[in-house]
Amino acid sequence: MHARPYTEADFDALFSVYTRAMGRVIEANFGWDEGFQRLNLARTCLEHRTTVYSLVSPFDGFSIIKEADDALILFLLCVDPQAQHQKIGTTAIEQMKREAAETGRRLTGTVLPGNDVGSFYTGLGFNIRFDQSGKRVLLYNA
């Protein structure tokens, strides 16, 4: 798998993967407003570390990491449904775990209700807890 930094030229491909991978979950939780989703995702990609992954095609997925002093916060990991089950997400998470260990930080994130990825994360060593609002919180202690 090849990983590279996101550029603004990637946005249309990134948004297409986001829509296919997360559209149903976003719609169920918040409702889907195309304009809002585009603006919010574009802003988030520029404000935080966004990485593009390719294996099967030039744009198979991406991740967005927010950095804190004590943690790497996995904001979003999306793999195109057509490229899933090719170890793209697993390889990306393993790279994040190594970075967390090397920098002495935790790797954490949340999972939206209806996004059935709990077994993916627990299989990679994450503990899953529920916060006060009922969101599933991921925690990996490096």
UniProtKB/TrEMBL annotation:
Regions annotated as coiled coil: none
Every N-acetyltransferase domain range: 1-142
Keyword S-adenosyl-L-methionine: no
Protein origin, superkingdom: Bacteria
Keywords, comma-separated and alphabetical: Transferase
Keyword Transferase annotated: yes
Record CDD domains: NAT_SF (cd04301)
One term of GO molecular function: acyltransferase activity, transferring groups other than amino-acyl groups
Record's protein name: Acetyltransferase
Lineage: Bacteria, Pseudomonadati, Pseudomonadota, Alphaproteobacteria, Hyphomicrobiales
